[in-house]
Amino acid sequence: MNLTKKIFQFVALVAILVSTSCSTDIEPYEGGIPPTNQTGNNTGNPSTSSVFKADFDGQTFNANSTQAIVNSDYVSITGTKSTGEFFQITIPAVAVGTYNMDSPTTAAMPFGLLYSTGSGNVPYLATDDQTGPFASFPNYTDTSEIVISSIDQVNKRIVGTFKFTGARFVGTSGTSIETKVFTNGVFNLPFTNDVPASTGNSFTAKLDGSNFVPTNISGLKMSGMISLIGRRGNVENIGVTVPDNITAGTTINFTAFSSNARGQYVLNSTPTGVFGGDGSVTVTFHDPTAKRIKGTFSFVAGSILPPIVSYNITEGTFDITYM
């Protein structure tokens, strides 16, 4: 997978899963994780203090707010500090066990580990050191591992550990990278089954002539791009991605392989459930300070893998405050 595709994929993924409207505020916590029995049910006190932390650069990151989602399709965990720094963990499975880059994954819901210093900044990504975008750099070695030790469906709590080596390109040439090693990651968090619907945002479109009514609307600025997503259900979504410096009155025509903008339709989490193609997006309003953006879009979403099918996305509009 090339760099452009990787960035689009992760920006869109994080935009779908991260929402400030449903985070849990937590206090810094220095404890470990409670014991689990063989079924993976939490045998500790269900009201135990929440924790999300990790070590890097000689210090410990303790999240001030967290979000955990566990549903039939994936596990998503986010830990954020008041400085804007955050970790994002995504696992395309829902079971106690150990996960890494060799675990089964899909284009719609990949295995993901990343750390960002804040909205709009290029994140440190964990990728496969044999086939990923950093595979050609000898100073990158994949160390990613997520261990889910408990998913307590009664008390709605998930417990586990993680570690990874993240990398990002230095500059825009793609000729050098910088790495950061994250160790001793721990999470012990309450979870919900979905991100609560945000208020004040709108996202509309027609999918093959029928109204597409999202159950959740989100936007995220990352790696020089703004991803705007309307999702219904756990996975199905329509999204457009534009440059973060786009100005009102700008129209961008794009293809499935464009690097400056893109439209994507995700039907499901299977390898054949992701569609992209030719279209255009027009921004009618953008206030970078308030992080508010409005516009229109349309595109034809074609198959990335056989069988060859396509969907017409028309009359798209967005009015979103992004992170």
From TrEMBL:
InterPro entries: DUF6252 (IPR046219). Residues 1-24 form the signal peptide. It comes from the Bacteria. PROSITE patterns: PROKAR_LIPOPROTEIN. Keywords: Signal. This is DUF5689 domain-containing protein. It comes from Flavobacterium terrae.
